[in-house]
UniProtKB/TrEMBL annotation:
GO molecular function: glycosyltransferase activity
Pfam families recorded: Glyco_transf_4, Glycos_transf_1
Name this protein carries in UniProt: Glycosyl transferase
Domain Glycosyl transferase family residues, every copy: 151-297
Keyword terms of this UniProt record: Transferase
Region forming the signal peptide: none
All copies of domain Glycosyltransferase subfamily 4-like N-terminal, residue ranges: 46-139
Length: 358
């Protein structure tokens, strides 16, 4: 039996966390021995849908006609749609209705965290909703001191202190606080990896980007190799997002062993703890104090504990859990029961019991 990973719309979401999640699903299933396909085949058991575009609805309806199950990934919520693109706050209630309709077409809904699962339950979705991390490739993203030199050479950084962040250049991702942090710490170099078409951004964000302080660099969207260099070569990962359903870049940073500072928001509750594996703060003053403490090494090093968190969400671990969901929802058959090894003692005991009944 195969799982059809629907890739329609990947050109639209390919550079986002959703695009990364699609690639992760393929790898997860491959690593746990479940065959995948990118088209309908005679032995397709179910289709994975990751986007909420109109073509995804058509694919779900096509699965119904074929008698196949639909696994819809709930990456998007109304809450993380807000403060993203021009007009998103106004459209957010309509977006909630649309994604509720889409997810309702699934036989199973999978969403990355307990937090996002709680949000979807509040939308009135009646289908089974499972919380399952998007995962991280811990074999690829891992601490590598050798990458520090290549990262710094690439951007001409020398031995400057460096703080990085990753994501779309939108308000929800904490861009404004990141720029203010850079403004308050002119002796530190700040780099933001990621890009959003300026035509999609509200004027406030475009103005903020134009007025960014001189110690901020915008390398734009980079491939995973350069991103790994950045995680391994920078001194702090400051991800100040206001809303997430998980945050794949957080997992990548933790896997690479970079000290991580996050905004203290509900999505991290239960798996990331302030002062234990990351630093979670609420406002710009605390962000500055924490980043300064990390750079001056006056705060404890939490990177080993952060790496342990990433390992619990490795692609192998996520693949095993995903396979269990398939079995529970009867998408895949249960594991075969292996016959017990032959035992002369047990055979003799069975013969003895048989003779005793004569």
């Amino acid at each position: 039996m195969r799982i059809y990973i629907y890739t329609g719309g990947e050109k639209v979401v390919g550079k986002s966390g959703v695009g990364q999640a699609i690639r992760h699903q393929k790898s997860c299933l491959d690593r746990c021995g479940v065959s995948v396909t990118e088209r309908w085949t005679a032995d397709t058991a179910a289709v994975h849908i990751n986007t909420v575009l109109p073509d995804s609805v058509l694919t779900a309806l096509g699965a119904r006609l074929r008698g196949k199950k639909v696994v819809w990934y709930g990456h998007s919520t109304m809450e993380d749609f807000r403060k993203s693109f021009r007009g998103s706050d106004l459209l957010a209630p309509l977006f909630r209705r649309w994604i509720t309709f889409c997810y309702g077409l699934g036989d199973v809904v999978i969403t990355p965290t307990e937090y996002s699962s709680h949000l979807l339950a509040g939308y009135g979705i009646r289908k089974p909703v499972y919380s399952l991390s998007n995962g991280v490739d811990t074999a690829y993203f891992h601490p590598d001191p050798a990458l520090r030199a290549s990262f710094r050479k690439r951007y001409g950084l020398g031995e400057e202190k460096v703080v990085i962040s990753v994501g779309h250049t939108i308000a929800r991702k904490g861009l404004l606080d990141f720029l203010e942090l850079a403004r308050r710490m002119p002796e530190v170099r700040f780099l933001w990896f990621g890009w959003t078409d300026p035509r999609l951004l509200p004027r406030e964000i475009n103005d903020a980007l134009d007025a960014a302080p001189d110690n901020v660099m915008f390398p734009g969207y980079v491939d995973r190799e350069q991103l790994r260099e950045a995680y391994c070569g920078a001194d702090v990962f400051a991800f100040l997002s206001h809303e997430e359903t998980e945050g794949i870049v957080v997992l990548e940073a933790l896997a690479c062993g970079i000290p991580t500072v996050l905004r203290d928001i509900p999505v991290y509750e239960g798996w990331l703890e302030d002062g234990k594996n990351v630093y979670k703060k609420l406002n710009i003053d605390r962000f500055q104090q924490t980043v300064d403490g990390i750079l001056k090494k006056t705060l404890p090093d939490l990177t080993a504990a952060g790496r342990c968190v990433a390992e619990t969400r490795s692609l192998e671990a996520v693949g095993e859990r995903l396979r269990d969901i398939y079995r529970r929802e009867q998408i895949l058959p249960p594991p075969r029961q292996t016959a017990p090894a032959f035992s002369p003692h047990r055979a003799a005991l069975r013969r003895s019991n048989w003779f005793s009944r004569l």
